[in-house]
Amino acid sequence: MIEKREELYTSRARAFAAEEEKAASKSTLVSWLRVAVFLAGVALAWYFFSNNNMAEGAITVLLFYALFIVVLRWHSRLDFKHQQLMLLRRVNEQEVERLQGKLRNFDGGDTFINAQHPYTSDLDIFGQNSLFQLMNRSVTSIGKSRLASWFRNAAAPAEVLKRQEAVAELAQPEKLDWLQALLALPMHYKHDQGPADTFMEWFSGKSFYRQHPWVKVLLFVLPPLTLAAAVAWFYGYSGWIAVALLLVQFWLAYKFRVERDEYYEKSIGIYEAMRSYTRQLQHIEEHPFSTAKLQQLRQGLQQSGTTASASLHKLANIIDYFSWRLSTLMAFFLNNLLMWDFFWMYRLENWRDKFLPQLKESLDILAETEALASIAAFQHAHPGYAVPRFSQQQFEFRAAALAHPLIFSVKPVANDFEMQGAGNTMVITGSNMSGKTTFLRTVGINMVMALMGAPACAERMLVAPAQVYTAMRTADNLAENTSSFYAELKRLRMLLELTEQGQPVFYLLDEILKGTNSRDRHLGAMSLIRQLHHRNASGLISTHDLELGAMEEELPGSVQNYSFNSDIIGDEIRFDYKLTPGICRSFNASKLMQLMGIDIENNKQAHI
């Protein structure tokens, strides 16, 4: 199925590339037409004015200016279409790259990495070669943040079911064009990290005209009076009135220069994002949906008779006009004749009073839709993945052909797996490199995917909701003067504290207490299993310690032994990576050391 999807995306990329080439040619042609209109208008106007045909010259200027604007807008639309086709081609190329495991150039969500989180660091949720790189399609910061929050926090089963229904609708083959268009639209614009949240937080507490109501009065009085005085001066009246009014405007601009700069700098920071959000929201508003969640999201974009895209478009236009102040010459005349900055500050505050609550809700809806779109694109790319079902039985986990979604170099070996009930521990023994740790991560990462509403890398999967907790990658912390053993102990203490809270905890522990001697490691591991047995927890523990297998007799029915094995054939070690009942009986450490050049027999003779 992956091969068929790769062929599909490759075919789509080629088709978009062909359309892109045609659109580029048309855009170039219209660009030259724009130049021709401009030159023709200049030549004709010069002809009329040079022959003292002032009326004809003025009419020519107006007509050709209007025609130039029409052609300019036509060219802008064509250029946008050309860019969209280029981005759609890139979207499909990226899908191929993900299927091939080429994740290096995708955002790993490094800002979301948290070593103290219950599982994200151990399960490669964020960072290089991560699940975030594989699944995320969002370009906007709000979309990425929403998807990251779903990775970090399991949703309630009812919410997961709603997400699964929405994702199933968006992942339908007939929705692919709409879905990829939604993902490509924000690529036209720059997206800084979290500009919308920062802007809304700042803007909510700002009220320049409430603090200075007299400035609002001057805003509607001074510019008309100044223009009238300037016209009167042109017709021979005293110019002192105009000069005085200009000086008043100049004084106002100087007095509130800090406020003016602050309003502009804060608003211009979200300009690109607002244009992007406008396009995306309009794309969502215009599309009919059938599932309840998507219908609810779409309906939330229409409030008080104004669509979310329309209100954001107004904000983008306000910021655009505000930016005219960047021209030094233009800003001098606009601010000293028309109080330009003050006018757009007023428009910003007026917009906020009407639409800020709607902006917050609209961006929340957009973030939700983008996160769903990421999962839908992932599900479309992997049609063979299972949509997990939820179990009412505590800690039930049943999967057929469970595999790891981040293994690309070879075809991942799939395993059937099942367990259920509180207080159960599956002890997994195995030789080096046999697949113990990878299997733990396979179980964990698929459980995380299931509990966020994504498909799982399995043929079938049934899972009971639980808090996933891992202890796998513990390392020294020189800044905190912490050894890896102590770091692991802290991690296990967090697990015990979590189980004391009463919520079901599904743990995945890899080679626990490996930083101490075998006697203490054995004693500590057995004590931990006994302690967890009496709590609302179940999970998997991988180990080289065969003595832990004896706990299957101590706690019959609650501890089960499974293993991964290897075979040594000549100088070759072969792994089947298959989960097998019972304790591991084949180990390969000595053979691996021999293959690395360590003469085991000679060392043995030397000691004798």
From TrEMBL:
Under Pfam families, the record lists: MutS_V
User: TM segments?
Assistant: 32-49, 55-74, 214-234, 240-256, 322-346
- The residues forming a coiled coil are none
Q: Which Gene3D superfamilies match?
A: 1.10.1420.10, P-loop containing nucleotide triphosphate hydrolases (3.40.50.300)
Q: Which InterPro entries match?
A: DNA_mismatch_repair_MutS_C, DNA_mismatch_repair_MutS_sf, MutS, P-loop_NTPase
Top-level taxon of origin: Bacteria
Which terms are listed as keywords in the entry? ATP-binding, DNA-binding, Membrane, Nucleotide-binding, Transmembrane, Transmembrane helix
Q: Does the keyword Transmembrane apply?
A: yes
DNA mismatch repair proteins mutS family domain ranges (all copies): 423-608
What is the protein's given name? Answer: DNA mismatch repair protein MutS
* Naturally occurring in which organism (per UniProt): Pontibacter toksunensis
